[in-house]
Structures are given as structure tokens and as C-alpha cells.
Amino acid sequence: MRKVLLIISFIGGIFSGVMAQKASDLKWADICSGKMGADWYGSDEAQKIADIVLSVQKNNGGWMKNDQLHKLSDNELKALQNARGEHSCLDNTATTQEMRFLAKVWQKTNVGKYKESFTKALNMIFKAEKGCGGWSQYWPLQGGGSYWDYITFNDDLMTNVMRLLEEIAAGRGDFANIADDAAKQHCKDAVKRAIDVIIKCQVDDNGTKAAWCAQHDTLKFLPAVGRPHELPSISGSESASLLSYLMTIENPSEALQQTIHTAVAWLDAHKIDGKAVEDFTNANGEKDRRVIDKAGSAVWGRFIQLGGETGRKTYESFFNMLRTRGKSRSYTSDGKTYTYTEYEIASKSYDPEKEYQPIFAIYDDKLQHLYYRFLYTYEDADDATDWKGCSVPTSLNALRRTNYQFMGSWPLNVIKNEYPAWKRRIESQNASQGYTTYPLSNETNTSGSSTEYAFNGNIKITNGNNKGYATGKSNTVKYSANVNYTVQLPSGMKIDKVQFYGYDNYDVDAYISHFNGTDFSATDYVFPAKDGDNMTYMTHTLQATTPIENSFSFKLGSKQCCLILTLYENDGSTAITLPLTDADSKAITYNLQGMRVPNSVRGLYIHNGKKYIHK
């Protein structure tokens, strides 16, 4: 037995050695996110790296971006230490990731200097917050109209900061006991202000709420220019990231819910359907990208040109800014030098007829005469002669296509998966006020594969056709058509309404044909047919005329559906809403506390021993 244990121990040591990671093999972002394993952050190696992090912390509290602080050369370290007086950065996860690293080390070592450095960085974030809410790329601000000073959604800057502040405010995990109550409250307030400014920045597309640009100005909250190839627009990429974050917020306000609904609808309406972006090697042997046909997919521009009056005003403001700035760019070709103002380049290349199309631009220090030049073609196209007689590109080239993602499917998962799941959660949340809810989903299933489906709360579903338990997408359960399903309730439970959420699993419309003794037509509660791999998620809530006890049945017509059923039981804080007859209106009316009130006041009334709500 001892020999066997020794062999097992030896094998375990081999696997441990194989699994162990070297810090130098990872990127700095991986180190900061915890990929070295929790115990490592208390090691001597981790503390040595943490001391380097402290030694290059900016005097104003943060760090610069893209530095691999765990494996700096001597010259790199010295350069960063000499640059401590420069501004701090929040772009590309800078500062937020160093704070996460220091929090991990402090939790394992309890060494005060790491907490002090963390707190210094947190105070920098507090100072850097704009008066209207949100953050820019750098602190202190650059000034002089620099895009560095705008409200910045680019590269998930805002959401990275907001997620960090949320976690600090909650005081969980790596952030337990690292901030005092005042700092936690400051974090909560800053996140709330940031959400408010996100709502304000949602682009008004000629009366229709759209999505967001990569950066916005701080006065009118309009889309603003970034680098010379990041033109004012609506961003398919940044908007998708923002929506993913916003849909994680618990108990969103009505205004935030509307922001999410309208942004998703706008992006869905402006997709380039049936397309995808593919990496390939072109005829010149270069790495390249192209747009291909792909069923069930869609693409968006990283920058989508604004349209209508909103577009006219935005681009007019942008052109005027360039004219006021007064910069010129020159280019020499075949011995001749061409000089352009940035205003000329942008205003003359802009085509208002291309509204809502992806726009592109080339950012290359060797080709500065192309700065802010609007291009409308992704794939290679012939050059053209411009108004000065210079031959200029009309499309992107392979280098620009591969070095920057101008086209992508970023919102696709948001629209197809994240939004339907969020919408169902919010609808259930809104509908559940005053009720105890019992969701019957794959997540709450306790029976496994069986013809008697069991769920949390001792709720069971049986059917007369011995249909076995099966699941669909998004946590749904499959229910076959023309099969009578009986939902069995535990003793004492009284159900007032049932929500059916999900999708039709076939290419013919399905519907709820029966519920609790009532039959319905094929046009009453419809689940639209599936289009290829695309499903339309629907929610139907059916109210019981009287509270349901013991059991109820339901049946689907035409085709199988994948559904989550949510049962609602009145928790006593509200009453069932039902229409009243003339006779009922003469009944004694009570409020929710049982006090007698006039019939003109909305409240609870009792009739034949049953409680109703006065409409």
C-alpha cells in the first residue's frame, strides 16, 4: 500500500509540475486576472512583482497601458520609473488591472503598502470622473480639444471601470475589506452617474434612439472623433459591449430598460444580413480579411455613418472643428507635393448619400494626407484621382483590414442570445412584483431525463404520451405539440397567472391551444416559426380567472416549442386584477390593509368570500 501511495504521490507531482504556470509565460492581463492561481499571489515572486508595480505607479495614482510589468527589462523599468510624473491611463484595462492585481496580493499578504497603492489608484478614478459622469482615456485631461478627453466607450474603458467599482462596492472576493464604507458609497454613486451618462449619450437618430459612438463629447453628448480613422458614427463594436454590460445590471430603471430595448432594435435593423468576416491569405501572400456569405450570420461596421438631420449636424460640427484647428497634411508623389487641410480631406470625401453604411479610413503616418478621409469600400478597389490631381485610395488595404477590425459580428450574440434572455428576465421581474415566482426551466429541473418532470418547489409536470424530458436553447424545456401537459402543484400553492416564454422549434407557427380549461385559436398566443437557425423568442402571460390549486393543464398546437414556464403566486401585497360587474361595484371596498374606503378609491374588495382589486 505504501508503494502505491508513493507512486500516486510521484505521479501527482509530475502533473503538478506540468500544470504549474510560469508568470513569464503569461501576459500581464492574465497575471492581473488571476490565472496564476489564488495561492501564488501570496508568494515571494508575486510580492516582488507587486513592488515593481508600486515603483512605476504614477504620482497621480494610476499606470500607463500595454506595459508588461511582470517582465520588464532594466531599461524599460527605468523608463517607467522616470515617467511617474506623467498622466495615468484607463484605456486598454490600464490601472483597473493593476488594482485587481494589488488587491489579490494584499488579500494573501496583508502587507499595507499594497492596499495603500490600491487606495491611491481608486482615489485617482474618483478624481478623474467627469462632472456629468464617466471617464476619459487619461488623467489629468489633455485639454485643447483632444479626443483623449471625451467620454470614452472605446476598448470597454467605461465598462471596465464600472465593473471594478461595482465589485469594490460589494466588498466581495479580492475586494473584501479593502475599501471603507465612504469609498464603497462613492463607488456606487459613480456607477449610477456613469449609467445616467450612458443613457444621455445614446444617439438620437432623427427621433429614433440608436446606439453609441466609441466616444462622445461632454457637453451635448454627441458622437465625437477619435484617432484619424475613428470617425464620428455609431459603433457596432462598442455598442455591443455596452449592451452586454448594461444587461448585467440588477433592477434596471425604466429608462435604462428602454435604452436597451431601443439600442438592440436599432442594431438589428441596421445589420448586413447573411454575412461574416473571414481571415484569409490573399493572392499576394498577405494576411487579409474579407466579407463572405454565411447563413444565419450578420455583420456591422465598427463605424456606421449617421444619417438624416442628426448626421448632417454631427458631421458639420466635426468639419468645423477640423477647420478651426487648422492643421494641414502633405504628401509627395512623383516629385510633386500635395497639401491638404484636414477640413478639406474630411468634408470633400464625406458622402451624405452613404448614410447608415460602414465607413472606413486609413491611419498611417506615411500617408497623412489620408487622415480623416471617408472611405466606403472594404475590399480592394481601384485608386481614384482626387480634386487636387493626386491618386488616392478608395478602399482599405490588407494591412488596414488586418490591423484594425472595421467589420465584425459583434452585436450578433447580443441580439440572438443575450437580449432575449435579458428580456425574459426583465419581463418576469416586472411581472413578479407582488408575486412569488416559480420558474420551470432546465436550471430548476431536479428530475433529469424522465417522463415526469420535477422542478424546484416540488412542482411536477406529467403528460399522457410518455414524452421524455428534453431541453432547448437558453435554458428552455421542450414541449411537444398536441400533447396534454399537467402541472401538479404542491399542497397550499395557489397560482394566479402563468408566463410562457420561449420559441417555436420548427418552421411552422406554433401556439398555445389550451390553458386551464380554456381553448384558444391558432392566432391567439403565437410562437412564430423558426427561420433556419434563427428563433423568435416570445412571452405570453395567461391570467387565471380564480387562483389555481392542485393542478392545471396546457397544450401546444401545431409544433413543438422550447419554453420556460413561470408560475406566479400572489404574495399578499397585491390582489388579482379582474373586471367588475355592476353588482360587484356595489360591494364594500377595502384597501390593502383591510380598511374601509370609498368605491372611487382603487383597493381590495371582498365579494362572496373572495378578494378582488377594484379597477
Can you tell me about this structure?
- With 615 residues, this protein is α+β, with helices and mostly antiparallel strands.
- Helices cover 32% and strands 22% of the residues.
- It contains 15 helices and 28 strands.
- Strands 15, 16, 18, 20, 21, 22 and 24 form a 7-stranded antiparallel β-sheet that branches. Strands 14, 17, 19, 23 and 25 form a 5-stranded antiparallel β-sheet that branches.
- Helix 7 packs antiparallel against helix 8 (181-201) and helix 9 runs antiparallel to helix 10 (254-269).
- The radius of gyration is 30 Å and the shape is globular.
- It starts with a helix and ends with a strand.
- Residues 1-19 and 575-615 have low confidence and may be disordered.
Keywords:
alpha+beta; 615 residues; seven-stranded antiparallel β-sheet; disordered N terminus
Low-confidence stretches: 1-19, 575-615
Count of DSSP H/I helices: 15
Task: Report the biggest beta sheet as strand number plus sense, adding barrel if it closes.
Answer: 7 strands, antiparallel
From the spread of the alpha carbons, the general shape counts as globular
Gap from first CA to last CA: 78 Å
Strand content: 15-25%
Rounded mean pLDDT score: 90
Helix content: 25-40%
**Number of β-strand runs:** 28
Q: By helix and strand content, what is the structural category?
A: alpha+beta
Rg estimate, integer Å: 30 Å
